[in-house]
Every structure is written in C-alpha cells, then in structure tokens.
Specification:
Layout (H helix, E strand, L loop, with lengths): L1 H26 L1 H15 L8 H18 L1 H4 L6 H12 L20 H17 L12 H4 L5 H14 L4 H9 L11 E7 L9 E2 L3 H9 L2 E5 L3 E7 L4 E6 L16 E5 L2 E7 L4 E7 L2 E11 L5 E4 L4 E2 L4 E9 L4 E10 L2 E2 L2 E2 L25 E9 L9 E10 L4 E3 L3 E4 L8 H15 L4 H13 L8 H16 L3 H20 L3 H20 L3 H32 L4 H9 L5 H16 L3 H17 L13 H26 L27 H25 L6 H19 L2 H32 L39 H18 L6 H13 L2
Parallel strand pairs: 3-9
Antiparallel strand pairs: 1-2, 1-4, 4-7, 5-8, 6-7, 8-9, 10-12, 11-12, 12-16, 13-17, 14-15, 17-18, 17-19
Length: 843
C-alpha cells in the first residue's frame, strides 16, 4: 500500500515539474529571441560598426524589448498538486479522476465500521487501476506562441556569427559597449638607414625614403662602405624578426651566420643595430609577413699607402728631416716612424759590443696638417742630436694606418742619423768620450782616465769653474757606477755639459721657447679658446725676447773671443740680423689669424717660425724683414667684421618669430647709434645692423682691390648671403635669416683663410731677392729659402672641400638626437611629423 502511495506521489511531482518547465519555456521564448538577435549584432561585428548615437538607439530598443518580454517570466507560478494530478490523469487516460480522488477522505466523525470497510475497498480498487500512471514528457508551445517561427532565422544567424564573425566575442562586446572615440589604429612604421663609418665622410643612406624605394625598383643592390651599421626603428609591429641571407637568387636564400644585432624592444618600439661585415640580403618580417628586404653589398676598405720620398737628411744642429707621402681611400689616420740600427756601420758589419742596443730607438713624430687627409705630402723633423744613436747608420720604415685599423709599411731606407756638430775642442772631447761609453760601456775606466786628464790640465780648455765642477761630478759618478743605469746617467751628464760649453748662456732660454711653442701649437690644433691662444702667445713673446737677448749676447761673446769664423762674419756683413721685432710681427700675425678663425693658417705660420728659430745661430745673417703692410690692417677689419656678424647672429637667435608688425621699438629709438648693441630691438633694427655689416664688407673688398689684391670669391658669396639675411629680417622671417647669416659666417671664414695665405706670400715677397746665400728666389720660398708647398689638398683645385671632423661629429650628434626624438611616442603628432620631415629631408 505504501509503495503504491509513494509511486503516485512521485508521478504527481514529475507532472508538476513538467508543467512548470513548459510554462517557463513558453515564457522565455521572446526573451531568448531578443537576446539571440542582440548576440547576432554583437558577435557578427555589426553593432560596433554603427556610430555612437545609432548604436545607443539600437541598444536601448533591444533593452526595452527584453524587459517587456520578461512579463511572462515575472508572472510565472509553481503548478499545484491538483494540476499535477490532472496532468497524470490526462496523460494516463484515466476516467473518473481516480488520481484526483486519491487524496479524498471520509467525513470527520464517521466511525461506522461498514463505511470504513467500503471506503477501504474503494481505495484499493482505485489503486489497482493506477498501476500504469504517466506524467508525460514536457512539450514546447513555441509554435503556438510564434506562428512565424522567428527563432529559426535568429538561431541560424547566431551560428553563422560565431563561425564567421570577425575578432573574438569579448572584444566585440567591449567595442559594442564602448562609446568613447575609437583609438587610432596603430600602423606599422619602418625606418631603416645605413650609417657608414664616420671616417668615410659618407652620409647615411635612408632605406625607407621614397627616393630610395624608387631607386630600388631599377637598382636592387645598395652599396655602402665596409663596416657600415644598419639601424632599424619599427613601431606597430607585434613580433618583428631581423634575418640575414646569402646574396643569391632564389625564393629562399640560406641564412648567413656571424651577424649579432643589438635589439631593444619595449612599449611597441623595436630598435636594432647591426654592423655589416659582409654582403647579405637583410629581411624584416612580422609574424611571417615580410615588411622589407634589402640587398646590401660592401665597398672594401683598401689599406693606406706610404712612402719615403727622399733620403732623410740632417743639419749641424742634429735635426733629422724626412719627407714622405701617404694616401688612403677614406683618409690617413696617422703615420709612425720606426728606426733601427743598421747592420752595416763604418767599422764594418755590426758592433763589437751590445751596449748601444740598450737604448730605445729615436722617435720621429709625424703630424698630419689636417684630420684624415686622403692624400698628403709632408716633411717631419726631430731633434735627435742627444740620442745615443746619433752619427750611426740606421734604417727607417714608415707605417701608415687608417681609421679602420688597416696598416701599410713603406720600403726600408738606410741613412746616417744626424749628429750635432761641436766647434769647441772641449765639447768635442766630451762627446767623443760619451760615444765611447755608448758603444762599449765596459771601457768606463778608460773614460774616467780621460776625464781626469782633462781636469788635470784644464788650461786652454776649461774657462769656467762651473764647467770644471760638472766634469768632476760626472767623473765621480762614473767611478761609482755599479750598473747600466749609473752609466746612462753619466752619458746624459756629458751631453748636457758639452751643449752648455758649446751654446753658452742661451741654452735654457731656447728650451723654454721650444716648450711654449709646442704648447701653442697643440692649442691651435685642438681649437682652444681665443683667451687661451692670447695667453700662450703673450708667454711666447716674452720667452722670445729672452731668447733673442741671449742669442745676441752669445754672438757678441763669440766675436769678442774670436770664435766666429770669417765666413760667418762676411755673411753677417752682407745681410741684416734677424731682430726680435721681426719675430714679434710673426707672433702678431699668428694671433690675428687665430682670432679670425683661420687656425690652420696660424698653425702653418707657427711651423715657419719654428724653422726660423731652429736655424738661427749666433751671428747668422737675416732671412729678410717681415712687414705687416696693408694686409695686416685689413685682417684686423675682417676680424672685427666677423665678430659683429656673430653677435648679430646671436641677437637674431634670441628674437621671437613675431613678424614685422611686432617690433618692440618704443622708447628705444635713441639707442640705435651703435651696431651690435641691444638698443636696436625688433627685426627691423637687426636688418639695419645687417645692412651696415654688408656695407662694411663691401668697403673691405674695395680696399683689397686698391692694394692690388684680388678679393677671395667667398667674400662675394658672403655679401650675397648677408643681403639675403637683411631681406629676411625685414620680412620677419627669423629662420631664413639665421640660415643666410650662417652661410655668410662660413664664407667669411673661408675668405680669411685665403687672405691669410696671401699675407704669408706677400711677406715672403717683401723679403727681397736675397736667399740664404744671396741667391735670387721667387715668392714660392719661405724665409729660409726653402720651397713652399704648392700642391696638395690645401691648394688650388686639389683642395679638400669636405667639412672638418668637428663639424661632421656635430652633424651626427644632431642626427642621432632627431632619430631619438622621432621614436618618442609621447610627443604631439605635429612635432613627430615635423621631425619626420626633417629626417627625410636630410637624404
């Protein structure tokens, strides 16, 4: 009985659940259709394509429809037990409602046993008739609710949207609900360029410029110097890959090992740099897609060439002079000289003792007149008089190197290393003993005996007590010497004593003068400030006065003692002595050239001064009077003109780009009397100053013509640039004015170089027709009668027109700064576009 009761209750529950599901399924019909339609619009990518307001309207309409469709869901109620019973009766096809009557009970208060028995028999018969009860399977009523079957096309569209829709569901949903302005699409931008080594002087090659892309259609191969650097900057790429392949034909050339790019990839910016050591095809890909491809070949860097053009020679002062010639395809970086003792000597092959090999070889410093010349001929000198090898046969080779590290050696040449000629017997005797110590240091005892003999019989040899004491000290030190270092110190002492005996009191003054001259030469070569140049020039003037005074005192002493031979006296009578005033004028010209920016010409004139001082001896005849003439005065005017032009350029730089209508001239009209003062305000006032400087240049060119000197062509070009700057200033175009002023300054400096050369040539021509020995000579000779260089990169059509190394380095720094700024994503769009135009305009 209980089992049957539980089975009936279970069927009733199933029927109630079926009824509830059917009611819920019917209530969800329209909400599901509306949600399906919305999903089709979102997943299919249609809704994100709509503008903001239409999209809002569609979303609002769908939301309202969805809320309206929920009314049936809200009204849902759970089926009652009676409804479950009726469903069981209907599905089981039972008559007389036996299941519904299953819960019937006798009326309360009925205790008749007969009634109880009849009721129980009735219930038993009903239970026997309900053996096969059915709750029924839930059925959908959508066909009745939606006779047009709208759920079918919505379902098909939803399946198609999931299978064929763009992107992913999450991003499409986010885009549909995003009402802000869409972020701009990140485009893949590739900037690539090849940077040749700085020493080549070649400009960078922009691989992504329109001009290069047009050229690559007809000439697919790009040729650059060896050791060039490939630089890449990519924005917008997801997984960029740089690969290198063999330069062969075919769809898939093999990769090339040996390339090690430096890669930096952060915040969407990919940067890479790789030196190119061999030809290759460079490919740039992003997720398998090729972004760019370049075929690059390299121009090999040839080693330099160097040769010794003449046999090295020397003079009586022990100065070694060697002429040479060197060349390189991109410029010679430096030249070194290596000197070795030769096997063949005057006494035969080799040396009897190895003492001379204990000394370091002499050095011949070789300086290039300009940085990295492609071809240069020069002459180098070194004072080797004190070196222990002086007077012996030596061999020399020159080694030239370029900036890439390539080297080349010249042919070996043998010659006698110059030695100083001593005229005084005591000096010659000491040098002879010094030479003996150098060759055979084991004979130090014999040298001590010779020095003792000199000290024992000093009459006629030693005329000063200081010399006697110095020789005695050298002898004592030699007696106490226990090793090679002690003997070497005596060798140095004997040389100093001999030089002091030969030169007298002006030896110290000469050493001081040489040290200051070398310091000034380094300052000119390194581009020191004008204040430093003026300080060193003043010190050199004072040292030169002391040296010339010592020189004249020594000459008078020698004449009084009869030590000057008749030949020197005759030469002195035929010519004039070099005066301190002549040399001071050379220093004045050097300072003026440096102030005007002509450092190369100043350094060249300083080298001439060095040669004059090296060859000056007590009683030496004059090499000619140097006169400043009108050229010196005009050089002063040119220096003043360049200073004023530079000040005007600085004032123009400080002005704002405010046009001609915003000239701030109120209350300042009374201060326009002087050019270069800040009283002239506004573009108009700067234009007046520029006009005055243009007139000043015109007057200078007229003075040059009146003195029979052809004005350099660059002066005319500078005048035209200055006129252009004046017009730009009056129109309020500051940037154009600055460009013209910069061109004018460059041309003025170039003209100063040419004017300085004419000054030196005029100074040589005014020295008369007497050479060193009275021979006639032309204008191509220096004050010592030697031929001036008249060919090479600094003269005529062979002049090197490349900018200086400092200018090239500054240009590269500016270029690198522009490239770095171009990759800054935080810059405004207008500024990035401006920098991009600058970069593309450089190539």
């Amino acid at each position: 009985m209980n089992r049957r009761e539980s089975r009936i209750s279970r069927k009733i529950l199933q029927a109630r659940l079926a009824i509830g599901f059917e009611r819920l399924w019917a209530a969800l019909h329209w909400p599901l259709v509306i949600l399906g339609a919305a999903a089709v619009l979102v997943v299919g990518g249609l809704l994100p394509l709509l503008p903001v307001w239409p999209r809002l309207a569609v979303l609002a309409a769908l939301s309202l429809l969805f809320l309206w469709s929920l009314k049936d869901v809200i009204r849902l109620r759970l089926p009652s037990r009676h409804e479950g019973m009726r469903r069981v009766e209907e599905k089981s096809a039972l008559a007389h409602r036996p299941v519904s009557a299953h819960d019937d009970r006798l009326a309360e208060g009925s205790s008749d046993p007969v009634q109880q028995a009849i009721w129980e028999e009735h219930r038993l018969r009903q239970l026997k008739g309900m053996e096969n009860l059915k709750a029924g399977v839930p059925r959908s009523s959508w066909r009745d609710i939606d006779p047009r079957a709208l759920q079918v096309p919505v379902s098909l569209a939803l399946v198609a949207a999931f299978l064929l829709g763009p992107g992913d569901t999450r991003s499409n949903l986010a885009d549909s609900l995003s009402f802000a302005a869409p972020a701009p699409e990140v485009q893949t931008v590739v900037d690539a360029w090849l940077k040749p080594p700085a020493y080549t002087g070649k400009p960078p090659v922009l691989l992504t410029s329109l001009a290069m892309q047009e050229r690559l259609r007809t000439e697919p191969e790009i040729t650059v110097p060896d050791k060039s650097v490939l630089s890449l900057r990519i924005t917008g790429a997801e997984e960029p890959v740089l690969s290198f392949h063999e330069p062969v034909e075919g769809p898939n050339p093999p990769t090339v090992p040996g390339f090690s790019p430096k890669v930096k990839n952060e915040q969407g910016l990919f940067q890479a740099e790789v030196p190119l050591a061999r030809p290759a095809i460079v490919k740039l890909t992003d997720k398998g897609k090729e972004l760019a491809s370049w075929r690059i070949s390299l121009i090999p860097d040839a080693p330099p060439k160097v040769e010794i053009t003449g046999e090295p020679s020397g003079d009586s002062s022990g100065t070694l002079t060697a002429t040479w010639k060197a060349s390189d395809d991109y410029g010679v970086a430096g030249i070194t000289a290596d000197i070795y003792l030769a096997d063949d000597q005057d006494e035969g092959v080799g040396f009897s003792d190895a003492g001379i090999f204990e000394f370091e070889p002499p050095r011949l410093p070789i300086s290039l007149r300009k940085a990295a010349p492609r071809e240069e001929e020069g002459e180098s000198q070194a004072d080797v008089a004190e070196h222990p090898w002086a007077g012996f046969m030596v061999e020399m080779t020159l080694t030239a190197r370029d900036a890439a590290g390539n080297t080349a050696e010249s042919a070996k040449i043998a010659f006698r290393l110059p030695e100083r000629l001593f005229t005084k017997p005591l000096a010659r005797a000491l040098v002879e003993q010094r030479r003996r110590l150098i060759i055979t240091p084991d004979e130090a005892g014999g040298v001590v005996q010779m020095l003792d003999a000199i000290l024992t019989y000093p009459e006629g040899l030693i005329d000063r007590s200081g010399t006697h004491i110095a020789i005695a000290a050298a002898m004592s030190r030699l007696e106490a010497a226990e090793d090679r270092a002690g003997i070497d110190s005596v060798i140095r002492m004997l040389w100093e004593i001999a030089v002091n005996i030969e030169e007298g009191t002006f030896a110290d003054a000469k050493a001081e003068l040489e040290a200051l001259r070398e310091e000034l030469q380094r300052a000119l070569r390194d581009g020191a400030s004008p204040e430093r140049i003026a300080e060193l020039t003043q010190k050199l003037r004072e040292a030169l006065d002391r040296y010339m005074q010592s020189l004249m005192e020594e000459a008078q002493r020698r004449m009084a003692e009869g030590q000057m031979d008749q030949n020197q006296q005759q030469m002195q009578q035929q010519g004039q002595m070099v005066t301190p005033q002549d040399l001071q004028k050379m220093l004045d010209m050097i300072e003026k050239l440096a102030q005007s920016g002509a450092n190369e010409a100043a350094e060249q004139m300083l080298s001439q001064l060095e040669e004059i001082l090296r060859n000056l001896q007590p009683g030496m005849p004059q090499q000619g009077q140097m006169q400043e003439g009108p050229l010196s005065e005009m050089l002063d005017k040119l220096s003043e003109l360049m200073r004023q032009q530079q000040r005007l350029m600085d004032d123009t730089q400080r002005m704002q780009q405010d046009g001609t209508g915003q000239e701030q001239q109120q209350g300042q009209q009374g201060q326009q009397g002087q050019q270069g003062q800040q009283g002239q305000q506004g573009m108009g006032g700067l234009g007046d100053r520029q006009q005055g400087l243009t007139q000043m240049l015109q007057e200078l060119m007229e003075q040059l013509g009146q003195n029979g000197i052809q004005a350099p062509r660059s002066f005319g070009e500078a005048g035209r640039s200055m006129q252009g700057a004046e017009g730009s200033l009056r129109e309020g175009d500051r940037d154009q004015a600055l460009g013209n002023q910069g061109d004018a300054m460059a041309k003025l400096r170039e003209g100063a170089q040419g004017l300085a050369r004419q000054m030196m040539q005029q100074g040589q021509g005014q020295q008369g027709s007497q050479g060193r020995t009275g021979e006639a000579r032309g204008d191509d000779r220096d004050p010592l009668g030697r031929p001036m260089p008249n060919r090479g990169e600094d003269f005529g059509p062979e002049r090197d027109m490349l900018p200086s190394e400092l200018a090239i380095q500054r240009a590269r720094e500016i270029l690198e700064m522009l490239r770095s700024r171009a990759g800054d994503q935080g810059l405004p769009r207008i500024e990035r576009d401006y920098i991009d135009r600058l970069l593309r305009g450089l190539y």
